Amino acid sequence: DVNNDYNILNFNHCTMAYNDMTMKVFKNFLEINNSILWSFNNGSTSDLENLGLTSIKVRSSIVKNGYQGSAILDQDPLLEFNSYIPDNNSPAVGIANPNFTQPTDINGNLRALPANSLPDIGAVEINQSRASVDVRFFYDEDKNGLQDIEDLDLGIGVVEYKDIAYPNFRPEGIPLTMDLGNNILTYNGAFLEGWELTTDASIALDVPDSTYYEEINFGLKPINDTIQVRTHITMDPFRCDEYIDGQLTITNEFSTVESCTVWLTIDPRIDEIDFTSMPPDMDDGMNVGWIMEDLLPTEKREISFTLKVPAITGQNELGAIYDFYSRCEEIDNSEFAYGPAMRCSYDPNDKQVNITEIDTSLVNSSVLNYTIRFQNTGNDYAKDVRILDTLEEHLIAESFAFLRSSHPENLIINITDDHIVEFYFKDIFLIDSLTNAEQSQGFVSFSIRPVDDLIVNDEISNTGAIYFDSNPPIITNTIITTITEPLSSVDEQLLDAALFYPNPTNGVVNLDQLYDEVYLWNITGEKISSFYNVEKIDISLFEPSTYIVTTKNRDKISRAVIIKD
Predict the structure, then answer these.
(1) How many other CB atoms are there within 10 angstroms of residue 327's CB atom?
(2) Sign of CA dihedral 497, 498, 499, 503
(3) Distance CA 520, CA 548 (A)
(4) How many CB atoms lie under 10 A from the CB of residue 108?
(5) How does DSSP assign 406-420, residue by residue?
């Protein structure tokens, strides 16, 4: 791979062995990844010495007589002399860095073999043995305990192995490495409401040797024919004057095949946004829609987009909330509100939550969405990344649901009996921020429900611990969600609605003075937006309805009714 613009030559998955030739390179920079350099050179000089290059970067390679770099071995690769195929005992087997892996080897074989293992170093990939099973869950429509041709693979379900729970979040199922001897896999239904098992709950496996492989299938059927389509919005950190990526996810959580039009409402302060799938429906440019036909049970569909975060003109804009909404038309409870705060600098290892206050009357219908972000700011790659999140007593552990992550192909999720969730990015090989700032980052998002009996001033706190390889943990910020009084119980004074004009309105509402805090509530008592240090508010994004506005200056709280037409 030759990059003429930067005068760089890249060697990825190359094998140069058993020769006495001198390599001559007419480029200023040489990068060697996942390669074997093993000549007839019997001296002490490395095969990479004296090339006359400005810079050489070597990673995850076998180099005779060694070389300075990341994960460099000086061991005989044990290659067949004519075919250059590594022996099963070769040090080249299963240690390549996936960040620099080609999809196939020189013979057209897929990397890696077997599936879910690490690829081999060098030009040739071999199929080394490993005892394993793939655990899958399927939609058993006729409840016969067998996966018929029309029965779909499901991205849900939890299996336990050796007292550890492994949630499934993709139709391909969960790959598990097995111990030799007797093993038991058990279905755990505590994490999946609304579904029943149609096959045996426990399966015994006798694993005789390392070549063992089996596909295990658990059948599931919804208990009731219910309709539940949910929408969800995620975005990269909302940093000023930057292009960021986002994603709208539409999930059919239950049993029937559904179709709907999904709408995304965009904050009017966003001037530039591009979609991977252009919306066929648009009204004023701030509401865009896509027709979702035949959403299968448990199916997820994703629409990605890139937007430009506005620049700020003053310090008072730091922390400003930007409002985004999604919903499936005519399907109840499909609405999702996303309100990122404007940030111009941020800790790369932190935690966020979508709700920081919950009205006591809304606790039993609230869902908290947590996101943990991490970045490798060292000077070498991190082979593994582990995140431990302890679910405190105010959270229902059984309601845990995985939402989205970076590097999903490397992610294994474990939930222990003491309510600790482990997100294990195995063999992620996360490169450092000095090498590539963008690729040095990752994240994981999950949702969970609070318990129903919370009272005013209760706090739901949550903190994550991030482990890079064997280093001490990086502790994220503690994020807190506070339980507040319902709107009807706040000691309020009634404010003359005529002081808010125009009223009725179709957009901007002018206030009679500058207020420290302004909150907008719907008629059911749910707080739907917040404003700070403002003399006017913009409600153009909201549905036509009657709304309650509460204002606060110091300790004085007032309210008025406004109508959006």
Answers:
(1) 23
(2) positive
(3) 6
(4) 7
(5) SSGGGEEEEE-TTSE
In which region does residue 273 sit, left (phi positive, over 0), alpha (psi from -120 to 50) or beta (all else)?
Answer: beta
Number of neighbours of residue 286 by Cβ within 10 angstroms: 15
Rounded to the nearest 5°, which phi and psi values hold at 363? -60, -45
Pairing of strands 36-38, 55-63: parallel
pLDDT attached to residue 490 = 45
User: What is the spatial distance between Cα 76 and Cα 138, in angstroms, rounded to a whole number?
Assistant: 46
Q: Rounded to whole angstroms, what are the CA distances from 431 to 100, 118, 388, 437? A: 11, 16, 21, 9
Q: Order the strands of the 545-553 sheet from edge to edge.
A: 493-494, 556-564, 545-553, 508-521, 527-538
Q: How many residues does the chain have?
A: 565
Do the strands 70-73 and 55-63 form a parallel or antiparallel pair, or are they unpaired?
parallel
Coil/strand/helix, residue 487: helix
CA angle 9/15/19 to nearest 5° reads: 105
Return the structure tokens found at 129.
């043995």
Q: How far apart are CA 304 and CA 376, in angstroms?
A: 25
Please state the φ and ψ torsions of residue 472, each to the nearest 5 degrees: -60, 155
The DSSP annotation for 411-466 comes to EEEEE-TTSEEEEEETT--B--TTT-TTTTEEEEEEEEPBPTT--TT-EEEE-EEE
CB atoms within 10 A of CB 120: 29
Please say whether the beta carbons of 369 and 403 come within 8 A. yes
Nearest to 114 by CA among 131, 92, 89, 135: 131
Is residue 78 within 8 A of residue 90, CB to CB? The reply is: yes
Q: Provide the token pair at 200.
A: 């045996």
pTM: 0.55
Task: Answer yes or no: are the C-beta atoms of 515 and 502 closer than 8 Å.
Answer: no
Q: Round to whole Å and give the CA distance between 545 and 450.
A: 29
Q: Pseudo-torsion of CA 79, 83, 84, 88, nearest 10°?
A: -50
What is the C-alpha to C-alpha distance for residues 432 and 267, in angstroms, rounded to an integer?
34
Measured distance CA(70)–CA(15) in Å, rounded: 18
* Ordered mean pLDDT values, 10 residues apiece, the chain (565 residues): 55 85 58 87 63 70 85 89 83 88 88 82 86 90 89 89 89 86 93 88 92 91 80 85 90 78 92 85 77 83 92 72 89 84 65 80 82 85 91 92 90 90 92 83 92 92 90 88 70 60 85 84 71 86 81 74 82
State the CB neighbour count (10 A cutoff) for residue 50: 8
The rounded distance, in Å, linking the Cα atoms of 371 and 445 is 4
CB 13 within 8 A of CB 102: yes
